[in-house]
């Protein structure tokens, strides 16, 4: 029997999660000789095996017993030159010249640490900053790489002898746990009132719980920023929070004590349960149970609610004293990024919060809670931040040293650095429409360049829209190859990248608004895309007006008026009625919503085209219909009108409208006017609005399937990609998936990045990477 040395390479989240001690312990238990070390890209093991079965056994144990927070993407092994090892050791990390290292996201508190903080005999009993190699802050405390304590925001705390001993002991769960801390040496909590006066208490968390029970609103400093906490069962508390935060309808996320409590309030299946309990611990969208003590004001007419479990020791300890759900929402002012500094919290939230629970560990980067839904048996990210970013997406591309930057969209911005095969997508940045968000964007780009050791960028891809901050920023970055790319193509490209689609496909890019290549505002685009990423725009809605541009996004009733204007021109050719009379006569409720003067103004805008872009937006059609059905006339948050429309749809209805299409410039146009006249006809017949909403939804899903069939017949394409904010609508998403599958299509969408504009940067960077390759090959 010949002993053979093997090199085993493990890729994934395998650093900062206790992986090397884990390998060490397995190797020791199997009496293996060799060593393990970190490299820039993962963990490498050299060890001697006497048979292939002992190698298999070792690898199986690694896969089966891996540390909770570790994520193994791939294990490769090869025979290596024989080394006569005499023991098994953890040896020093080896850096490759690029120093490109994957960084772990923050990890929810592990079971062992939950036990520690619950045990009165442990020195970390009730200690809010307990962590170990399997859990705790990572990305949010890193100032610089490599990930060592002096380069984190823990550098200002000196470990006590007990903590240091754990840190140096390879058998300890806290071996090399960089944020290791205890009450004697680590960060501590303080409670303040909203006059910034400290509250005299030995136990800020117990006091905080008491205050919350009294119905007060508390700002709590969490992992990636402040959260606003309040009782979710008291109407008056939630109402007060809504008033103070000037957030009338947008649903609040909930934090709930444990899984048993979650089950009391929500329907939950095993996949959802696993997702909530995972070390990423995202906010998960769950269906509400009809009866329950939860305040209706938390999420209003939504049948789903965003739910998370406690994910830091601080939250766990707080819920020792509280058994009811808490509203736990990111602390920010309107659309600004989450607040992460104590001083900003006091300054900006003084009028919103009654108390402030803060601590003295700095947050290096703002980091929102991630938002997830389970669809098609998988996690579908809707906001990607805590627990996910900045861990990259590993694309199926060959390794290449060139670096591409995707600047991202304007709304729900993320940016992306792509160095094949890794796409490093930033955490959710937000809407680049205020100073704070823009600052966060710039600062985070700078930070990513530093921690991922990115100096020069070889290619930059940015949105066609000249006024987007991301576009302006990209244009100013030094780089030889800069490529503009339309928003809607970027959406489809992100699906191709994420799903590694190699064949031609039909792409449905349906959302609110984005700049099209003809200077108009696109939003219902259907493309054929070939392997060389060449796009052909083959279908979309017929064009209509967006009177007042951005003004009509906030005011869906303007979209209704715009859609009605075309009906007016059609049905009232002799102009017997004035336009306002036409509207008030048929839709009396509009008298309360829009004045005669404004109707006149809107119609003039449409006629003259003044500040009135032409659009093919699908999102705005939802808005207009929502207003026409007297649901949402003014949107207090982005997408509100469409959400309301979806929630209103009668699920059992399978009827649909017959779509009229017409050809124009080799494209299929879907006749919006015809669809509207059918809907209005239904309304006048007294059809239940729930049926109308359902018919509208069904029509769109059927349209996706029907168009796909037409293009398959002509071009033999079997793959369909769905991307854009419209596909956040579960009715459309579910029905489109099932119809397309029933008809034999392969259906793809965004799961690992948001299907909304959060995916745009990935699509951009992927495009740049492919174009760069073409350039280099001299094509
Ligand atoms: Zn732990
Ligand atoms: Zn200590
Ligand atoms: Fe979009």
* CA radius of gyration: 28 Å
Please mark out the parts with pLDDT under 50 across 5 or more consecutive residues, or reply none.
Answer: none
- The general outline is globular
Helical proportion, percent range:
25-40%
Gap from first CA to last CA: 54 Å
Taking all residues together, what is the mean pLDDT? 94
Bound ions, cofactors and other small molecules, one mention each: zinc ion, fe (iii) ion
Number of helical regions = 24
Structural class: alpha/beta
Oligomer: single chain
Characterize the main sheet: 11 strands, mixed
Beta-strand fraction estimate:
15-25%
Secondary structure: number of strands: 31
Describe the overall structure.
With 779 residues, the chain is α/β, with parallel strands linked by helices. The strands form 5 sheets. Strands 6, 7, 8, 9, 10, 11, 12, 13, 14, 15 and 16 form an 11-stranded mixed β-sheet that branches. The chain has a 7-stranded mixed β-sheet with strand order 28-29-25-24-23-30-31, with helices on both faces. Strand 24 (521-529) and strand 25 form a beta hairpin. The structure holds zinc ion (ZN) (2 copies) and fe (iii) ion. One zinc ion is lined by residues 159-160, 162-163, 181-182, 184-185.
In short:
The protein is built from 24 helices and 31 strands. By secondary structure, the chain is of the alpha/beta class.
Name some characteristics of this structure.
single chain, 779 residues, alpha/beta, 11-stranded mixed beta sheet, 7-stranded mixed beta sheet, 31 strands, 34% helix, globular, binds zinc ion, binds fe (iii) ion
